[in-house]
From TrEMBL:
It comes from Sesamum indicum. The keyword Membrane applies. The keyword Ribosomal protein does not apply. Coiled coil: none annotated. This is NHL repeat-containing protein 2-like isoform X1.
Amino acid sequence: MTFVYSLIKNQAHPSYLCFFFLQLFFFTILLGNFDDAMFNRPQGLAYNPKKNLLYVADTENHALRLVDFVDESVRTLAGNGTKDSDYQGGGSGTTQLLNSPWDVCFEPVNENVYIAMAGQHQIWKHNTLDGTTRAFSGDGYERNLNGASSASTSFAQPSGITLSPDLKEAYIADSESSSIRALGLRTGGSRLLAGGDPIFSDNLFKFGDCDGVGSEVLLQHPLEVFCGNVGQIYLADSYNHKVHDIKF
């Protein structure tokens, strides 16, 4: 920042200043080996133990990145640093633009990466076998709506995602609705686990700090959720400065 200020103060040529900012932007999504690659506020990680790969939600680059520990390289699977508002997807590689991915989880049977796309209130899926990335659940409206299918489900800034032990569901920290949701990986539909307003889907102001069952629970902007190998669920209740567990 000192360098930029001195350029402005000394009235450097505008084209040179513009070039500096362009370099600064593109360097944040630079690919290459571990020494050269750069990120921009990465938020979420998921590991593929079979292939020794790490998937990264590179949030402010609006990209899904891949860290390969075998050849010590970093490359981009989807997104190119440009924020977009495509609610369908289906593109391949970096031609498919993303919008603020906050977290990821890896499903090993079909080798899919599920993405909590906070920027447009959806859950997306990246197929690691064919390289395509598309919307999986959520109609893009910011609300707390559980439905039987992906088209009848809405999220509100989903920020955390984790898989159930049987790989049939993903658990979602839906931050703006202050709720934890369960997403069916076969149907794309969702159900309530804890928090939120189960009656008025547009009400994103049902929050607080109270333990209980289902919608009795009051949370405030949970940003992360984790499921252990025997089904225990832990959540980061961020604005209440607490960690909770959910028991079935």
